[in-house]
Design brief:
The chain has one domain: Cyclophilin (Beta Barrel). It has 4 helices and 9 strands, in the order E-H-E-E-E-E-E-H-H-E-H-E-E. It has a 9-stranded antiparallel sheet. It holds the Pfam family Pro_isomerase.
């Protein structure tokens, strides 16, 4: 299928970034699968036990949530998949795949009815332009953003799945590698800041 590249956000989610980097460099993400895939929503992987129920972080146990208005569940966001309760992050992650077309026209009215938080206009514009899953904000840690290879994410999201949203044929992560991110490698970047990036390579 190829690979997708992600820029990390250590300034807003240092715990999640360090956890992901440690799991990647130790090889624990290699040969794991994307075990939960929902088209027009997200792809989920990172379970180092390949059972769908493994949640241990790189040093065992779980760690705290990290939320910021600068890191949202926009299309392409890399996020921690917790256990459904606060501060239960471990190894699992998801990538938001929902395109702009997946957002219904009255999404903001629905959100205002269900959420205490009211988004400023600038954030509404981002979601309306790029897509994403705003209802997940401030419930799941966002610690990176795909800047290259969203076609690979879309291809994974489109694979046939069973009733449990597990792909009929395993989508295997062959490797997760780290390198240095610079704005020169990101056509959407507005800063020349160098930081760490990750390349996730699913099997063809």
């Amino acid at each position: 299928m190829g690979e997708f590249r992600v820029r990390f956000f250590p300034e807003v989610a240092p715990l999640a970034v360090e956890n992901f980097k440690q799991l990647a460099t130790s090889g624990r993400y290699n040969n794991t699968i994307f075990f939960r895939v929902i088209n027009n929503f997200m792809i989920q992987g990172g379970d180092t036990t390949n059972t769908g129920s493994g949640f241990d972080s790189f040093n065992g146990g779980t760690f705290a949530d990290e939320f910021s208005e600068q890191a949202l569940n926009l299309r392409g966001a890399l996020c921690m998949a917790n256990q459904g309760t606060p501060n239960t992050n471990g190894c699992q992650f998801y990538v938001v795949q929902a395109p702009q077309e997946a957002l219904v026209s009255n999404i903001w009215t629905q959100l205002r009815e269900k959420m205490d938080r009211v988004y400023p206009d600038a954030i509404k514009v981002l979601y309306q332009t790029y897509g994403g899953c705003p209802w997940l904000d401030f419930s799941y840690t966002v610690f990176g953003q795909v800047y290259e290879g969203m076609d690979v994410v879309d291809a994974i999201a489109a694979v046939p799945t069973n009733e449990q949203d597990k792909p009929d044929t395993d989508v295997v992560v062959q490797s997760v590698t780290l390198s240095t991110y610079t704005a020169a490698t990101d056509p959407a970047a507005t800063s020349s800041t160098a930081s760490t990036e990750s390349a996730v390579t699913p099997a063809a």
